C-alpha cells in the first residue's frame, strides 16, 4: 500500500490562547497517550501535512520537539497570530486549526483544502450551531485587509472574515468541532477516545 500523499499546504495549530475557562493552559493537558493536547494534535496532523507548526506565545512550556512559531506581540488575538504566521512562513495559504479541536477529521480537512482551489480568500468550516473562524484555510490575499484592521486595533476575526471573499463549508457533526474549553469538556473528550480519532 502506498503511503498517504500529504498536503503541501502548511498547517498551523493555534495554541496561544489564555485558557481562562479551563483554569490552566489546555494545550498542556495530557491527551490521547501524548504528553499534552498540543503534542497530540501535532503528531496527528503530521500524518496528513508535509509541514506542521505550533503558534504560541512561549515555546519553552512544551515538553516535546516541534516546529514552533512564537508570536511576541503583547496583544492576544487570532488576527495578530495570523499576520505573524504569514510573515514567518512566506506561504501563499495556511490551514489553521485550534489546539482544542482534536476531533476534526482528516476527511473534513481534505474537503476544506479541496474547496480552497475555488479562489476564495478564506475557506472555513461551518456547523448548524456556529461558524468556525479558526478551522480552515486562509490565503495571503487577506493580508492587506488584515493589516488595516490591526492598525485600527480591530482584533475581531469576524471583521476580517466578513470583509473578505469567504466560503463557509457546511458540516453537520457538531461533536467533530467541539472545543475543550472547560474541565467538563476535557473529561468528555477523554471519554470519546479513541472512537473519534481521525
Q: Mind explaining what this structure looks like?
A:
This protein is an alpha/beta fold. It has a single domain (11-192), classed as Spore Coat Polysaccharide Biosynthesis Protein SpsA, Chain A. It contains 6 helices and 7 strands, in the order βαββαβαββααβα. It has helices at 37-45, 78-89, 106-115, 143-151, 157-162, 183-192; strands at residues 11-14, 52-56, 68-70, 93-98, 122-126, 131-139, 166-170. It has a 7-stranded mixed beta sheet, with helices on both faces. Helix 2 crosses helix 4 (143-151). The protein is globular, with a radius of gyration of 16 Å. The two termini are 19 Å apart. It comes from Wolinella succinogenes (strain ATCC 29543 / DSM 1740 / CCUG 13145 / JCM 31913 / LMG 7466 / NCTC 11488 / FDC 602W) (Vibrio succinogenes). GTP binds at residues 14-16, 26, 71, 100. One of its GO terms (molecular function) is metal ion binding. Residues 11-161 form the MobA-like NTP transferase domain. Its main location: cytoplasm.
SSE topology:
Elements: E1 11-14, H1 37-45, E2 52-56, E3 68-70, H2 78-89, E4 93-98, H3 106-115, E5 122-126, E6 131-139, H4 143-151, H5 157-162, E7 166-170, H6 183-192
Parallel strand pairs: 1-2, 1-4, 2-3, 5-7
Antiparallel strand pairs: 4-6, 5-6
Amino acid at each position: 500500500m502506498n503511503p498517504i500523499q500529504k498536503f503541501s499546504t502548511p498547517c498551523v495549530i493555534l495554541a496561544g490562547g489564555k485558557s481562562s475557562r479551563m483554569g490552566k493552559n489546555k494545550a498542556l493537558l495530557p491527551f490521547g497517550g501524548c504528553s499534552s493536547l498540543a503534542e497530540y494534535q501535532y503528531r496527528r496532523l503530521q500524518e496528513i501535512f508535509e509541514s506542521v507548526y505550533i503558534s504560541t506565545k512561549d515555546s519553552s512550556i512544551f515538553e516535546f520537539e516541534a516546529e514552533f512559531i512564537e508570536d511576541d506581540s503583547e496583544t492576544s488575538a487570532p488576527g495578530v497570530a495570523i499576520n505573524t504566521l504569514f510573515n514567518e512562513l512566506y506561504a501563499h495559504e495556511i490551514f489553521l486549526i485550534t489546539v482544542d479541536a482534536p476531533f476534526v477529521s482528516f476527511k473534513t480537512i481534505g474537503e476544506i483544502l479541496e474547496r480552497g482551489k475555488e479562489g476564495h480568500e478564506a475557506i472555513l468550516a461551518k456547523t448548524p450551531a456556529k461558524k468556525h473562524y479558526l478551522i480552515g484555510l486562509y490565503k495571503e490575499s487577506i493580508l492587506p485587509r488584515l493589516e488595516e484592521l490591526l492598525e485600527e486595533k480591530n482584533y475581531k476575526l469576524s471583521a476580517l472574515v466578513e470583509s473578505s471573499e469567504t466560503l463557509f463549508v457546511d458540516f453537520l457533526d457538531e461533536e467533530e468541532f467541539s472545543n475543550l474549553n472547560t474541565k467538563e469538556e476535557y473529561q468528555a473528550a477523554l471519554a470519546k477516545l479513541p472512537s473519534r480519532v481521525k
